[in-house]
Amino acid sequence: MSSFDYLVNGFGTALSWQGLLYCFIGCLWGTIVGVLPGLGPLAGMTLLLPLTFGLDPTTGIIMLTGIFYGSMYGGSTTSILVRIPGEAASVVTCIDGHEMARQGRAGPALMVAAVGSFIGGSVSILGLIFIAPPLAKLMIQIGPSVEVMLILFALVVISLVSAGSRIKTAAMISLGLLLGTVGMDKLTGFPRFTFGSLGISDGLSFAALAIGLFGVSEILTNLEKTDTIKAITPKFRDLIPRAKDLRESFPAIARGSVIGSIFGIIPGVSHIVSTFVSYAVEKKLSRHPEQFGKGAIAGVAGPETANNAVTGTAMIPLLALGIPSIPATAILLSALTIHGVQPGPLLLTENPQVFWGLIASMYIGNVILLILNLPLVSIFVNLLRIPYVYLVPIILVISVVGVYSVDFNAFDIWVMVISGFAGYFLRKFGYEMAPLLLALVLGDRLEENFRLSLTMSGGHYSTFVDNASLIVLGGSISLLLAVQGIAWAFGYRKTFADEAEGA
Amino acid sequence: MALSEELPPAQKSGSWPRSVCTRRCGLAGGIALAAIAMFFIIQSSQLEWGSTALPGPGFFPMLLALALLFCSVWIIAQTWASEPTGETHDLGHRDVIIVMVAMLFVAPLFETLGAYLTLGIFAFVLLVLIARINVVYAALSSAVSMVAIWYFFQILLGLQLPWGILLG
Amino acid sequence: MTKVNRGVILASAAALVFATGLGSTPSRAEFPEQPIEMTVMFGAGSAADVTARHLAEGIAKRLNVAVPVVNRTGAGGAAGLVHISQQKPNGYSIVWTSNQMSTTYYSGQLPLAYDNFAPVARVSVETPALAVKADAPWKDLKEMLEYAKANPEKVRIGNSGAGSHTHLSAAALFASVGAKTIDVPFQTGQATVNLLGGRIEGAVQLPAAFVSHVKSGDLRIIAVLGRERDPIFPDVPTAKEQGFDVQLDMWRGIAAPKDTPPEVVAKLQKAIEETVASPEFVEAGKTVGFRPAFLPAPDFGKLIASDDKKLGEVMSQLGMKKTQ
Q1: CA–CA separation, A439 vs A113, rounded Å?
Q2: What ipTM was predicted for this assembly?
């Protein structure tokens, strides 16, 4: 049988009533945990893992994968509506998504997020079908030293596009990296800055910090002007993106698909990093970079596409090598193993029906999610009708529960509260939160990989300029220069355009 | 993390929220960051530094804390040198302070009082003081929302929230 | 939110009822009359977590109560053990633990020694395995150890974290012949990738991490570091068979808070014994990579004590023992 026959067979499996039902349950569940702040795909999949015990392997894995990419759809909702990241990969969406909502344009933001997620997801599945084996080979080459280079690259990119003053951005990046070192040292197991508390030993909770810095600080800021915040009563035509929105979104969606697909194979926190990189690229390429942070739709479309595009290619290391590259795929690994399916180089020959059934279901799942999410947009947007002072307790209570349920650790509530206060003041004083969060995510990986590289090379820094790292570094720098160059060219066009418009 | 201490000192009189000039705020922000940096410098000096060839657990935190200290000193100097612009930040808004204080109680009470009791009281306080609704309605709606939270998280999602004193 | 998700709620309610499938009401005043919470010190999705979930399912079926699994992974699993030590000793809180009970104690992460817990039963055993690339120059363990001895700090061995069981067994193996290696502590799964990528010479992991790559011919197992051969790699001789006396099986089992009443422990132990003997559990072991190895509470307690002593010695040799 050729791959094509297998794919047709796969669609047969995925379109059976069982396949469809469990795909739907997975997508729905994923959307719910994605919407809830704090709870992400990890919690969602863990909770439903027992349910898969009674299913056949393909159906079980179809459902769990549905939760994984479904949560990426749901994550944008609270980011846009109330500036609370529903999920770590939706932090960037808060920036412009919520700004759009405040301008009464939550509808288009949510719609574009859903459509972008759909396209990103679909492109990524194509990547999974056609280039899984070469990508898997490439992934084996990504060692710690290459990862160090990639992380440095991501940090440089975010600092270049940050809106605030350079020195304040640098301060936030240092602070983020520093907070990332809190907890057990991964290499020696030595506790750092924990003061004997077990609650911090695994580091500060990213969900708690993100919800605090973005969501809680937003609530505190808004409380100062509750008299002036009007409940938004959306009209139907406000729900639909305008032609201009589409024109601005589609290039962003196209680029987001590629960025997400590439980042999917990088181990660690690729789903989060891809959103930051996508945002940076969009801002650099935009003809109106000044609109970013003030409700640019491309700043929603790009990152939301990218985090979904990760889901397909993130399956490659799992399926082709049996190695989970991000936490969510670790759960999938267990689910497969429970059913006696051993992911790895032999999966395609030993269990082709699982592989192709899964791919087909991911396609169908993305369609289901699009159909599921578009009608939800109008419901979600109508939540904004509730006066803000009533929303405050609801948002805070759900955030506290969400943050607590990630690790069942009351200390995380402290982290959320304190970072909320800190975020409130920092934002007032002109500091940006996004670089801090990205640095926090990357901080411990940067350190760990840096030290691992040195351990493996026997302390020789030459390890950072070996072949693979050099290629990555060179490629990244040329990409950066190219982006800068294009932005510069567009900058000229922009000034001309502005003059022509007489603006 | 120590930034919460930046709250302006409580004053008996005067009108809230108070206007504080941006220059002073900028200095306060820089000083707070510098304080955090100093804290981490002192703490990481007690960790093993290792060598540049094989950095120990204290290597990175120390480097980063020094970078943060450098940035914050720069920010302080920059702000110090700048002319007062006359712009101000409003600090100490009544509702903001109420929510902040209420939130400070959530974490310590969450596991002892239990999630439902703590959050119920929290919601009640906010409804009365911020949304300014009738005490009876506030009590009713916070009770109803706790039942909803219980149903949704505990029954449907299967997450075990602490019951605290409610279930002995 | 509640209004919005009503449809959602109904659908997931149906799913959950289906999921747990536990309708019957147990009789009053007899253990167990409420759900038994199983704390797991390992991350959701790890092989150990999968085993725990199989076990929880089996116990739930036999005792007729729900056995929810909660992952408490902080501080190398110490957070889970500390949590359990603070629970009431009534059998409704149990912990899925391993030799890590001792290693986290000696490394200073866990403030409680093993005798702060009541052993219930050992459930399974896993054997750390030493893998190299298929085209590595060493045919057997002897050649590799001799090479490592002759070339100090040239052989890099990946493990799953400083102070982990795989680290200690690797270190104990190479130290037994006086060879100096570079131990590289990786996060989950990364030791295998780096071995495949040729950035390290060998890796010690639990068998599940290697199985598919051994079958595909990319990796080769040089030795297993257990008391007997591992059924997953029946052709691979143990280190002992090859003349090096390093036996560090990784056991996993159930413990409860200290002073849990013996009759409650007995009930749990019986349910565990039946689960471990069931064909489903044996089958699960083959795919997940563990060997069912039931041991009743008293024997389990003795094993914990003797392993604790052994691990303490290995760790103090390595200079990793922080607790006296």
Answers
A1: 25
A2: 0.88
Residue A205 and residue A227: Cα distance in Å, rounded? 34
CA distances, A465 to each of A146, B46, C169 (Å): 9, 32, 33
pLDDT of the residue at C29: 59
Best CATH choice for the domain C129-224 from the list 3.30.870.10, 3.40.190.10, 1.20.120.450, 1.10.3720.10: 3.40.190.10
* Partners of chain C (3+ Cβ pairs below 8 A): A, B
Name the amino acid, one letter, at C182: I
- Select the residue from A77, A323, A371, A373 to test the C interface by mutation, using most C Cβ atoms within 10 A: A323
Helix ranges (DSSP H) in A286-351: 298-313, 315-316, 327-338, 347-350
- Residues 6 or more apart in contact with residue A446 via CB below 8 angstroms: A148, A151, A152, A177, A180
- Chain B partners (3+ C-beta pairs within 8 A): A, C
Helix (H, G, I), strand (E, B) or coil at C101: helix
Confidence of residue C22 (pLDDT cuts 50, 70, 90): very low
Asked whether the domain spanning C129-224 has the same topology as the one spanning C35-126+250-317, the reply is: yes
User: Chain B residues with CB inside 8 Å of C2's CB?
Assistant: 148, 152
- Which CATH number is C35-126+250-317 given? 3.40.190.150
pLDDT, tens digit (0-9, with 9 covering 90-100), for A346-377: 887 788 888 888 889 998 999 999 998 888 88
Torsion on CA atoms A319, A320, A321, A325, rounded to nearest 10: -60
Residue owning tokens 């989970």:
A324
**Residue B50 C-alpha, separation from nearest chain C C-alpha, in angstroms:** 16
